[in-house]
Amino acid sequence: QVQLVESGGGLVQTGGSLRLSCAASGSIFSIITMSWYRQAPGKQRELVAGITNSGTTHYTDSVKGRFTISRDNAKNTVYLQMNNLKPEDTAVYYCNADDLNVDYWGQGTQVTVSS
Q1: Is 58 exposed, middle or buried (0-12, 13-18, 19+ CB in 10 A)?
Q2: Digit-coded pLDDT (tens) for 24-83
Q3: What are the tens digits of pLDDT across the range 81-98?
């Protein structure tokens, strides 16, 4: 079992920045990839960014150049640095851990970008 706890969401103006954190605990040795997803009201949950245990990253096109995913293995924490935020980034952001057998999810953190 893996437990994930997100933090760092909030309200920010267009063009502002936020950093989300996701602290993992439990059977973290089994995790292959950690990712951030988001879900806006009335929309499906979508993948925002991911990072493998070897450090390979990937991003959805709409956040490339603005968001950066990173991990601190010593702290078992993954971060999502979000810059130049836009109103369309408003959503609940979820941390995900994948061990190829099970998907683990955090409780989500709200990000609201005002215009």
Answers
A1: middle
A2: 998 887 888 999 999 999 999 999 999 998 999 999 999 999 999 999 988 999 999 999
A3: 999 999 999 999 999 999
Q: Supply 17's token pair.
A: 């920045």
Which distant-in-sequence residues (6+ apart) come within 8 Å of 91 by Cβ? 38, 39, 40, 43, 110, 111
Using an 8 Å Cβ cutoff, are 82 and 67 in contact?
yes
Distance CA 93, CA 46 (A): 10
If we measure between CA atoms, which residue out of 80, 57, 59, 64 comes closest to residue 4?
80
Q: How many CB atoms lie within 10 A of CB 50?
A: 19
CB-CB contact of 105 with 4 (8 Å): yes
Contact 68, 17 (CB under 8 A): no
Q: Cα 93 vs. chain centroid, distance in angstroms?
A: 6
Closest to 94 in 3D by CA, of 60, 46, 53: 46
